Amino acid sequence: MSKKNHDDDVAFIKALAEMLTDNDLTELQVKREYGDADSLNVRVSRRQEVAAAAPAPVAVAAPAAAPAPTAAAPAEKAADDPADHPGAVKSPMVGTVYMQAEPGAPSFVAAGQQVNEGDTLLIIEAMKTMNHIPAPRGGTVKRILVDDGATVEYGSPLMIIE
């Protein structure tokens, strides 16, 4: 029995690693329950240095080609990075975003709409579970940063509420 569980666990971990790569995720964590005192905790992650190294040559080439925009580029980057915005609502998990309760239904929220704390902003499906993401505070939805059906990672900015 122990051998069979080991083989099943290896296949399970390989499937998680494939899911990580296929969905361009950086980390995935799962707990598998076998019984009262028997479980398997798995965290699969991959390094991000490879992704960070790729844009570096592009960033170096752009300032060399156009010195004037270089001075404006840091200000644009700070203004354009929604993750740094104080009103950013970030994803609490890895999963797939759904902007409405079911296909064809109206979206939970739209840009410019007023929301109250606790209102459902969207749904993130993770491991076949639909997780309603509530508004952390009341305000106006300024920007929606994700598309319906998009895959998000933990900490990804979803929308901005001011």
Itemize the secondary structure elements and their pairings.
Layout: H1 2-22, E1 27-33, E2 39-45, H2 49-53, H3 55-65, H4 67-80, E3 88-90, E4 95-98, E5 114-115, E6 120-126, E7 129-134, E8 139-144, E9 151-152, E10 157-161
Features:
single chain; 162 residues; alpha+beta; OB fold (Dihydrolipoamide Acetyltransferase, E2P); 2 domains; 4-stranded antiparallel beta sheet
Shape summary: elongated
Quickly give the structural class: alpha+beta
Outline the low-pLDDT stretches: 49-73
Number of helices: 4
Indicate the CATH topology of the largest domain: OB fold (Dihydrolipoamide Acetyltransferase, E2P)
**Major sheet description:** 4 strands, antiparallel
| The CATH homologous superfamily of the largest domain | RNA polymerase II/Efflux pump adaptor protein, barrel-sandwich hybrid domain
Strand content: 25-35%
Main sheet: strand order: 3-10-8-5
Give the SSE order as H and E letters: HEEHHHEEEEEEEE
- CATH class categorisation of the largest domain: Mainly Beta
Termini separation (Å)?
Answer: 56 Å
Rg value: 20 Å
Q: Any guess at the CATH architecture of the largest domain?
A: Beta Barrel
Characterise the protein shown here:
This is Biotin carboxyl carrier protein of acetyl-CoA carboxylase. The chain is of the alpha+beta class and 162 residues long. The protein is 31% helix and 30% strand. It has helices spanning 2-22, 49-53, 55-65, 67-80, and strands spanning 27-33, 39-45, 88-90, 95-98, 114-115, 120-126, 129-134, 139-144, 151-152, 157-161. The strands form three sheets. The protein has a four-stranded antiparallel sheet with strand order 3-10-8-5, with no helix packed on it. Helix 3 (55-65) packs across helix 4 (67-80). The chain is elongated, with a radius of gyration of 20 Å. The protein starts with a helix and ends with a strand. The relative contact order is 0.14.
